[in-house]
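Lecture notes, part 5. Sequence design as translation. It can be helpful to think of inverse folding as translation between two languages: the language of shapes and the language of residues. The source text, in structure tokens, appears below.
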């Protein structure tokens, strides 16, 4: 198909490219490749559904307890003074740029998913350097007036903290918001809004 200027439309060019690509493959490989692609796409879509990937596009702290190992951390946050003022994303995700926030969430999320799926999480979960830098920046962002007018500590950089030249906010404020004792065993009976099972009722009935 051509547009009013006589040029090929993008959809035609794409379909033509795929036809040429299929012509390069032996006929006996076309069906297996399509079947393999369908299986991979189906498993990927199912994994995104089970992991509730869509929930991470929002700002609801309940998304954190999609991974049950985060229960004690969700509970300590929910009972802290920060719960009324800041969500998990406001502390743990870069602010000011939606693409940057989304990219950070994606990278951090893939890392967490890999660690939790392999059951390789430590007993005491603490932020990595990249996360600590973001947390410190968000502490300063939320408490700018306190830092610049009252306490006059200035704008500390995480690189200075890591090199021992400065103190991070949590070096003094150790009990906020997750407390010093937060770990996987600190609240074994934590009451948190765990998500409902993604397994449909008809499949549960068959399994029983």
């Amino acid at each position: 198909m051509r547009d009013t200027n006589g040029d090929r439309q993008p959809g035609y060019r794409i379909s033509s490219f795929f036809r040429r690509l299929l012509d390069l493959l032996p006929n006996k490989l076309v069906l297996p490749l399509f079947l393999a692609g369908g299986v991979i796409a189906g498993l990927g879509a199912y994994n995104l559904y089970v992991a509730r990937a869509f929930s991470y596009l929002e700002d609801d702290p309940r998304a954190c307890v999609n991974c049950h190992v985060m229960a004690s951390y969700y509970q300590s946050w929910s009972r802290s003074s920060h719960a009324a003022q800041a969500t998990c994303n406001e502390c743990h995700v870069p602010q000011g740029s939606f693409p940057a926030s989304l990219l950070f969430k994606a990278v951090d999320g893939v890392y967490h998913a890999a660690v939790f799926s392999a059951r390789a999480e430590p007993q005491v979960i603490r932020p990595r350097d990249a996360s600590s830098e973001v947390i410190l920046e968000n502490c300063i962002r939320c408490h700018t007036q306190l830092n610049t007018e009252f306490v006059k500590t200035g704008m500390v950089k995480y690189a200075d903290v890591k090199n021992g030249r400065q103190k991070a906010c949590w070096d003094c404020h150790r009990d906020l918001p997750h407390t010093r004792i937060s770990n996987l065993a600190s609240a074994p009976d934590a009451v948190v809004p765990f998500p409902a099972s993604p397994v449909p009722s008809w499949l549960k009935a068959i399994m029983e």
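The translated text above is only one of many valid answers, since several sequences can fold into similar shapes. The mean pLDDT is 85.
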